[in-house]
Design a protein that fits this description.
Keywords: DNA-binding. Pfam families: TetR_C_23, TetR_N. This is TetR family transcriptional regulator. The protein has eleven helices and no strands. With about 270 residues, it is mainly α. It has two domains: about 50 residues, Homeodomain-like (Arc Repressor Mutant, subunit A); about 180 residues, Tetracycline Repressor, domain 2 (Orthogonal Bundle), CATH 1.10.357.10. The radius of gyration is 20 Å and the shape is elongated. The N terminus and C terminus are likely disordered.
């Protein structure tokens, strides 16, 4: 287990205290989220977002290379809101099962307003070659914030100190992958107030917690070791990291999404 005290994300400053550039960036994202809800993602253009936000189209593109890149802003904002909400709900609770369910329920609640156009977001984010995939290097900051939530779920629980150290190191990433399964289920859930997703969380959170708790026992240690080896060899290498973002001097990023975006700028109505 990592004994270091986790550093929580900073509190969101009041909009008027942000630098002008950050205020403009936040305004564009807030406007885009509203228009996506009102008109749908496909029917909302960068030109419409700029007009509603009261900025030039060029200025909108300065902060976001294209409409798709607002999804990255959405990731960042959602994970930050989720972290603050989950942390507040978990305060004073030490039962691992309860903390895990709180963290998952918190995500469903924080994302509720965006469910109507989530499938449109998912269509872009699901492309494995896209920089906007939640598994991409570019998504590392938002993903690390989300993983940190699950690190706090473990470290603040009475189960945390009892876990196998190697599994304890990997578990926050595994719980984030579990959240991705829930996100996929949520995207396609068309029940009122996503009741099926909420029931799914209620059922699977205790099940996952039991599996984690069983890993403490000596009889299961060989299985834990095998699982850790497989995860390190096959799962973690597929998840991008911040180090992969570093480019040698003189090189540029040429992701397919960025190239496509630049080609389509003039066509965006």
């Amino acid at each position: 287990m990592n004994d270091a005290v986790p550093t929580p994300p900073p509190e969101t400053p009041a909009p008027e205290l942000l630098p002008k550039g950050e205020r403009t960036r936040a305004l564009i994202l807030e406007t885009a989220m509203r228009l996506f809800q009102e008109r749908g993602y496909d029917k909302t253009t960068m030109r419409a977002i700029a007009a509603e936000a009261g900025v030039s189209v060029g200025n909108a593109y300065h902060y976001y290379e294209g409409k798709e890149f607002l999804i990255q802003g959405f990731y960042d904002r959602m994970t930050h809101e989720h972290a603050l909400d989950a942390r507040a709900r978990m305060a004073g609770k030490t039962d691992f099962t309860e903390r895990l369910q709180i963290a998952l329920d918190s995500w469903v609640d924080c994302s509720a307003d965006y469910h109507e156009f989530a499938a449109q977001f998912f269509r872009t984010a699901a492309d494995p070659n896209s920089a906007l995939s939640p598994f991409s290097n570019e998504s590392h900051p938002a993903r690390e914030t989300a993983v940190q939530i699950f690190r706090e779920v473990i470290d603040g629980s009475d189960l945390g100190p009892k876990l196998d150290p190697e599994l304890g190191e990997l578990l926050p990433d595994l719980l984030w992958l579990h959240l991705m399964v829930i996100v996929l289920y949520w995207v396609f859930d068309r029940t009122e107030d996503t009741e099926r997703t909420r029931a799914f969380v209620k059922r699977c959170a205790p099940f996952v917690a039991k599996l984690v708790a069983l890993s403490r026992y000596r009889v299961f240690r060989p299985l834990v070791r095998d699982a850790v080896d497989m995860i390190q060899e096959f799962v973690l290498p597929t998840i991008g990291s911040s180090t992969a973002l570093a480019k040698p001097a003189g090189t540029t990023s040429t992701t397919s999404t960025t190239t496509t975006t630049k080609r389509k700028r003039r066509k965006d109505g």
